[in-house]
Amino acid sequence: MITCKNVQVIYQNNGTALDDICFSLKGPTITGVIGPNGAGKSTLLKAILAITPHTGEISINGQPAKKQLKQIAYVEQKSAVDFTFPITVKECVSLGTYPEVGLFKTLKRKNWADVELALRTVRMEEFANRQISELSGGQFQRVLLARCLVQKADYIFLDEPFVGIDAISEQIIMETLRRLKNAGKTILIVHHDLSKVREYFDQLIILNKRLVASGRTNHVFQKEALVRAYGENIFVDEVNKNDRKLY
Ligand code: ADP
Ligand code: MG
């Protein structure tokens, strides 16, 4: 369980990114974090991960979150990942073992077996020896998920994993996440395509610097909350774009 109490993040020179965020999230779940650009979605993940300083309390299973970081596997927003780093797919996935094995230590046979299994899970086993710079965006995102799998963390945080990727990769990632949820994991995904929200997420955290709503998707994915997060124009824009009703 993740609990946030009165969480506030203030960036120097850039003001308040998150204010008075309170929620508790009980897994297993696939929870979406939604809200407009600049709403503080990435900042929320980084606050939980202790990458960004915050005030207020964040706990995981009743312990301060910063003492539970090994329990969280994280894929940051794509723009921030170095795609050109010269390593192979299987080396990249093996980096997920470092909380257990230690960085630059030799992996044991068992760890390599985990790497292979993770690559099979995301259907990337054929690419094990390929350089990561030679992958498509969707293939790379699957490799990053495989890296999370070998970490064997109870919590998986993905920041906009579907941006700019192919439909097959998106499907494989969602299938994998559903299986992980069924195995008891708590998954938090920053996401911005509202048309997929009902299909993908059982719970939602809706942000716009403050918490607009949190809870079961059926309860909180409603017009009033969406207008509070995105403004009135959301319905004109999104409904026209997707040619269907959102809620
Ligand atoms: P989202 O992911 O919802 O688009 P972010 O969490 O990235 O939003 O950013 C929230 C706000 O905080 C934005 O105004 C952004 O410009 C600002 N911000 C994000 N990271 C930093 C940083 N490292 N330093 C200063 N301001 C930042
Ligand atoms: Mg972001």
Quick recap of the structure?
The chain is an alpha/beta fold.
Explain the overall architecture.
- The chain contains 10 helices and 10 strands.
- It has 247 residues and is α/β, with parallel strands linked by helices.
- The protein has a 6-stranded mixed beta sheet with strand order 6-7-8-3-9-10, with helices on both faces. It has a 4-stranded antiparallel beta sheet with strand order 2-1-4-5, with helices on one face.
- Helix 5 runs parallel beside helix 6.
- The longest helix is centred in the last third of the chain and has 16 residues, at 167-182.
- It is globular.
- The two termini are 28 Å apart.
- The model has no long low-confidence stretch (mean pLDDT 91).
- The protein binds adenosine-5'-diphosphate (ADP) and magnesium ion (MG).
- The site of adenosine-5'-diphosphate (ADP) has 11 residues, from helix 1.
**Judging from the principal axes of the Cα atoms, what is the shape?**
globular
Task: Give the rounded overall mean pLDDT.
Answer: 91
Q: Spell the H/E element sequence.
A: EEEHEEEHHHHEHEHEEHHH
Bound molecules: adenosine-5'-diphosphate, magnesium ion
Task: For the largest sheet, list the strands in their spatial order.
Answer: 6-7-8-3-9-10
Class based on secondary structure composition and strand pairing: alpha/beta
Radius of gyration: 18 Å
How many helices in DSSP terms?
10
Number of strands: 10
Distance between the termini: 28 Å
Strand content: 25-35%
